[in-house]
Amino acid sequence: MATIKDVAKVAGVSIATVSRVIHNKGKVGDVCRARVKKVIVELGYRPNSNASALASNTSNTIGVVTPKLSMPFFGSLASGVEKGARENNFKLLMANSLYETESELNAIESLREHDCKAIILHSEYSDEETLIKLASEIPGLVLINRYIPELSNRCVWLDNLSGSQLATKYLLERGHKNFAVVTSIYQNRDPSCRVEGISNILEKNDLKLDANNVEESTANIEGGESAVKALLAKGQKFTALLAYNDLMAIGAIHALFDAGIRVPEDVSVIGFDDLLVGIACRPRLTTMHYPVEEMAHYATNLAIKLSDTSVPVSKQTHLFIADLVERDSVKDISKY
User: Fold this and answer.
1) Which regions in the chain score pLDDT beneath 70?
2) Where exactly are the structural domains of the chain?
3) Is the fold of 61-158+292-320 the same as that of 160-290?
């Protein structure tokens, strides 16, 4: 494999001149530049991007760590990072944490070993003290879907409270008064924040979310099924069901149909995320659009900007809002 020394020797110039031609920096005569480029092509020389990055103390590699890339939500997140990386001519490295603190930290360390100064991290279980320490060591570390006040300028997160409140108001406006919730067992703040939003809106309308009408399970189709089965086994009555995410909502619909309960004729269901699978199911799922791909794209640009330590750090925050996507899984019973 040809080296930069080989190119310099054949072209009859210095290594520094070849470097200036490769990086299009510095003064090089047109004739000399053309000769160097011709030799590069003839020898098939490919510049070593890692060596270039080391020499300039910069890196054009960005990393992303999610719990499980095979899940649709995290696949969308990774897609947003990939788009941002491509637009900035960055290479992308991806890793799974598998919902384990140790695996998450090992993934981050692996990316650091690959000289990733910009990292997008969806952290489920690492404590705030650990993440604050990592942020002090990694210039371009950005947290997505998590908010830590001390790192507010590095956090790109969703207003889960307003999202669940909007979904609840939508159901109330359509005459629903008996609510049930299937939520996630995961120990981040999102599940509790969304349940809080639902409860707040119901209380403002002189209603109350019965604790027996709230079931926790895994945030997937199987979890949605088991949570609804548990609600039905207790004999709980409800006309509206809010799910932590679209996968749980689809599982809930399966369990309701298995029990002879029609959606939306008997029970209305709202999801959260707006995944493609929500359009494929029947009835098509009414849901809250979680702009995760847009957030990830934004987070990528932010991480790359922060990784450039010569640029002053901005103190702005980065909060996104969920929007309602109306489809077919909610019935208006206000006229009945």
Assistant:
1) 47-59
2) 4-47, 61-158+292-320, 160-290
3) yes
Q: How many helices (H) and strands (E) does the chain have?
A: 13, 12
Contacts of range 28-36, beta carbons closer than 8 Å, 24 or more positions apart: 35/11, 36/7, 36/11
Write down the CATH number for the domain with range 61-158+292-320. 3.40.50.2300
Count of C-beta atoms within a 10 Å radius of residue 206: 7
- Count CB atoms within 10 A of the CB of residue 197: 21
Is 117 within 8 Å of 130 (Cβ atoms)?
A: no
Q: How would you list the strands of the sheet with 140-144, edge to edge?
A: 91-96, 61-66, 118-121, 140-144, 155-158, 318-320
Of 323, 322, 12, 72, nearest to 221 (Cα)? Answer: 72
The CA angle 295-297-300, to the nearest 5 degrees, is 110
Give the pLDDT score at 59: 65
Query: Rounded to an integer, what distance in angstroms lies between the CA atom of residue 92 and that of residue 85?
Result: 7
Task: Give one DSSP letter per residue of 172-223, joined into a string.
Answer: HHTT---EEEEEE--SSSHHHHHHHHHHHHHHHTT----GGGEEEE-SSHHH
73: its two tokens = 């939500």
The reported pTM is: 0.81
What pLDDT, on the 0 to 100 scale, is given for residue 152?
95
Around Cβ 109, how many Cβ atoms within 10 Å?
Answer: 10
Element at 61 (helix H, strand E):
strand 61-66
CATH superfamily of this structure's domain 4-47? lambda repressor-like DNA-binding domains (1.10.260.40)
What's the topology of domain 160-290? Rossmann fold (3.40.50)
Chain-centroid distance, C-alpha 292: 5
Q: Render pLDDT for 43-100 as a digit per residue (tens, 0 to 9).
A: 888 766 555 554 444 568 999 999 999 999 999 999 999 999 999 999 999 999 988 9
